[in-house]
Q: What sequence folds into this?
């Protein structure tokens, strides 16, 4: 049987380490759960561990969050689209925005439902993804502050997601200056600078900081332990929260390189190299496991055993070179893989792959440490504090 294993003890470790390092910055954070694809038990476990603020990019996932963790704070990460405004107001407490027309529609729907919808306005800082341009900031905020049903919680940015550049202190300083400008000009408190993703963590774990940024949206490093700058693992984190176990359907000694002439490229030609590339004429044990590119990005799978390597895959099968087969695997045994983010996302979204948490949720709850004090709190204040002027000391 093929299954994704979600290790709650490893998840608990990473949650505690990330919470510790972010609180050292006097900052807060929200857990990004979009790669979980609404997996009920994992979301329930996160809530049990103290997570009260979750961010996701799919409305169906937010519905699943409502079922798994009633009352939890929900952020809608993907830029709102007009056709989804009603659902966004129903399901999300906060959304990230860049378009006046969309914010007006959100405000209108919020008023209709007698709600106050919170937003963070995203500013373009070089990633060339979402964000208003800095030269339009004051005019944009002037319009937004007049929209009924909308409360502006702060400013934000997406850094290092599209172009992969590491964030720097200059970008953090820019955001701080923009917030200061807006607060002075409009005499309104903007409580949060939501800086960005897991790409900020390596510097924080190395003892650095990003002055002014007081909120982070963290997902990938929590689940995979990844250092998004170097591509390695963050030393303080575990990389075994998520593993994939796949059953062997065939295992034989074979040539590890093909002797036939190739024409063109294979349908799923691998773009990732590895250090175990076989030499011409070399033979070894080769296993076929029953997962393929229909299920996930095969390029994103790395066998846990160093001697194993992925030779490639088709839609339904992945070929694994087992070297000398040190564990004496045979048909029906399983090969275990770690995943990158793309593979993790594909697997969790795949209806053909079972998902299993270990230990089971009830056993995990019963063995939970009594001195656990991790708290990932809600970010959104009561409505009156959003509109309070800078002279109000209650903030």
A:
């Amino acid at each position: 049987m093929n299954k994704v294993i979600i290790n709650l003890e490893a998840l608990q470790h990473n949650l505690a380490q990330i919470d510790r390092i972010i609180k050292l910055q006097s900052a807060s954070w929200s857990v990004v759960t979009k790669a979980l694809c609404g997996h009920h038990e994992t979301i329930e476990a996160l809530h049990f561990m103290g997570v009260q603020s979750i961010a996701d990019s799919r409305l169906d996932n937010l519905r699943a969050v409502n079922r798994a963790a009633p009352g939890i704070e929900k952020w809608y990460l993907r830029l709102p689209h007009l056709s989804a405004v009603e659902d966004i107001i129903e399901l999300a407490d906060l959304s990230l925005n860049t378009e006046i027309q969309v914010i007006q529609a959100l405000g209108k729907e919020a008023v209709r439902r007698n709600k106050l919808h919170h937003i963070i306005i995203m500013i373009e800082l070089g990633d060339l993804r979402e964000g208003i341009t800095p030269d339009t900031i004051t005019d944009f905020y002037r319009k937004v502050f007049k929209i009924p049903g909308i409360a502006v919680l702060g400013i934000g940015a997406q850094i290092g997601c599209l172009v992969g550049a590491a964030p720097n202190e200059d970008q953090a300083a820019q955001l701080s200056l923009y917030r200061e400008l807006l607060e002075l000009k409009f005499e309104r408190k903007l409580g949060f600078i939501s800086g960005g993703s897991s790409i900020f963590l390596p510097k924080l774990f190395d003892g650095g900081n990003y002055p002014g940024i007081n909120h982070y949206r963290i997902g990938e490093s929590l689940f995979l332990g990844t250092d998004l700058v170097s591509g390695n693992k963050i030393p303080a984190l575990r990389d075994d929260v998520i593993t994939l176990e796949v059953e062997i359907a065939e295992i034989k000694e074979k040539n590890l390189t093909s002797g036939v002439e190739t024409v063109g490229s294979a349908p799923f030609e691998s773009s990732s190299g590895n250090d175990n590339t076989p030499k011409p004429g070399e033979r070894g044990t080769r296993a076929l496991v029953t997962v393929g590119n229909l299920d996930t990005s095969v390029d994103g799978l790395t066998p846990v055993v160093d001697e194993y390597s992925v030779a490639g895959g088709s839609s339904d099968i992945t070929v694994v070179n087992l070297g000398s087969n040190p564990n004496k695997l045979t048909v029906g045994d399983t090969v275990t893989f770690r995943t990158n983010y793309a593979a993790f996302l594909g697997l969790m979204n795949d209806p053909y792959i079972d998902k299993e948490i270990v230990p089971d949720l009830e056993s995990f709850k019963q063995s939970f440490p009594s001195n656990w004090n991790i708290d990932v709190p809600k970010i959104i204040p009561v409505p009156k504090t959003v509109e309070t002027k800078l002279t109000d000391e209650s903030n």
Remarks:
- The first strand starts at residue 3 and ends at 7.
- The chain has a mean pLDDT of 90.
